[in-house]
Amino acid sequence: MFMAKKERTGRTGGGALTGVVTVSGDPAGVWLEGERRGVAVYAPGGYQWVPGRGEEMLVLKAGVQGEKPCAVGVPSGSGDLAPGEVRIVAGKSSIRLGLDGVIDVTGTLKVNGRSVVLEEEGL
Q: What's residue 117's pLDDT?
C-alpha cells in the first residue's frame, strides 16, 4: 500500500487530452497545449491506422511525468450502428460487421488484387 501511494505522488503529468493532427503519419504531430511532434500512434491489435491532418484525436500522456504522448484514437461517429456492431471506414470505403452475420462492404471489393463483381439477386 505504501509503494502504491509513493508511486502516485511522483506523477505530475499523465492524463489525456484531445488535440488536432498537424502532421499526418506515425509518429504524428498533434496540437495539444502546443504542438507536439513524434507522437506514437496506437491502434487495436491487427489494425493499422495513420491519422490525417486536421483530425481530432485522443492523446494519452504516458510516462512518469507525462513526457510520452501516445495517440490512441479519433471520435467514433458510430452513426447507425447497433451496440456490438463494427464498422471500419476509410474515405468512401467501409466494411460493416452486423450482429446478424451480414458483412456489408461499400466501395470496390478486391480479392488478391482482382475486382469482385457480384450479380444482384433476381437478375
A: 86
Look over the chain and give the mean of its residue pLDDT values, rounded to a whole number: 83
Contact 45, 7 (CB under 8 A): no
Neighbouring residues of 29: CB distance < 8 A, sequence distance ≥ 6: 21, 22, 23, 35, 36, 37, 38, 39
- CA atoms of 87 and 104, how far apart (whole Å): 9
77 in helix, strand or coil?
coil
- pLDDT for the residue 122: 54
Closest CA to 71 of 50, 54, 87: 50
Neighbours of 10 (CB within 10 A): 8
Measured CA to CA in angstroms, residue 30 lies from 33, 37, 40, 90, 113 at distances of 9, 7, 10, 20, 35
Map grid coordinates 467501409 to a residue.
94
